[in-house]
Give the backbone structure.
Amino acid sequence: MARSATSPVQTTDAAPFQDKRAYWRAAVLRVRGETERRAAYLSAEDQIVQSMADASPTKWHRAHVTWFFETFLLKPHLPGYAIFDERFPFLFNSYYVAAGPRHARPQRGLITRPNGDDVTAYRAHVDEAVLRLIDTVEDDETSRVFAILEIGLHHEQQHQELLLTDILHAFAQNPTGPAYDPQWQPPKPAAGPRGFVAIPKGIHAIGHADDSFCFDNELPFHDELIPDMRIARHLVTNGEWLAFIEAGGYETPSLWLSDGWTTVHNEGWQAPGYWRQKDAVWHVMTLGGLKPVDPTAPVLHVSYYEAEAFARFAGKHLPSEAEWETAARAGLLADAFGTAWQWTRSAYLPYPGYRAAEGALGEYNGKFMVSQMVLRGSSLATPEGHERVSYRNFFYPPARWQFSSVRLAEFV
């Protein structure tokens, strides 16, 4: 599924969007509407559940992204704007220390009130104000206002993906195996030749290269040295992972990093996340409910520790993010986007010359550049218009509730 990644608005006819105000009105309606479309599959009870500290309730996601617009866009830039509810900044801030105190993350599921209807009213209040700001902002202020608006829309798209990964984690804890969408179907595996393909060695530029939107951690555009190596065209499949399991992969300490081996034992891992045996057959929890594991489909819900152990088992290694990006830019990868995020061996660190934005928005990426690993690509839950070759996702090594997979590489 090929998608553009330069804007939250997609259109085949540019004429209706020559007016930048009309463009951003359409963007707001499209992105904000997508959040509600995703939430519409869920009951009120579904929307308040928090299944672990790393996940958030759907209701919280809907309110938090709204708080973002209220805090960073409307309060500073819309004269006379009235905050919807004085309680909400404390309840729905996430990690923006400069924006004020916040409710503890592991306790978001305890916020049963304000209820879902209150959050819906909050979203409507802020949407009306954002559209009014778009229509009334002075021409000489539009660049600044629309830049913040664009960040807010991409931020909301990030939470649209989290909305799905978080509710899937919650449903996976339910012994009845409920479906988010009974009609949901996974992406079909990419066709074409398998095996490995050479990455052009030498000095290659990576990072965001043009004036379209990106997050600050994708900058600056800079050179990296790529060695003589090859990368897999396709993602590792469930069938290949079943072979890893049957060969004792989860029981062989020599395959694992020390922290990974400790995690395997502490968590009792015997297979990827959401896999379970039913009548001696492996099944996996999906957005469509519990399904038999398809051996031809890419493996999903594996941690960095598992990805690294599988690479050792296969006699390969994980690509660096620079290697992955160089291969993706060259069009060498199948399923680079739209199926699963792909672990790299790169630690999440700043690029040479990186500078975080000033103020509270500077807390968005930079302060997390420690102890996490980079994933590249995008997943089946990534909303349309939110993927690009320079995008840097990042999670802690044990994380596997995301749609995360493995692509192997080898030195020549």
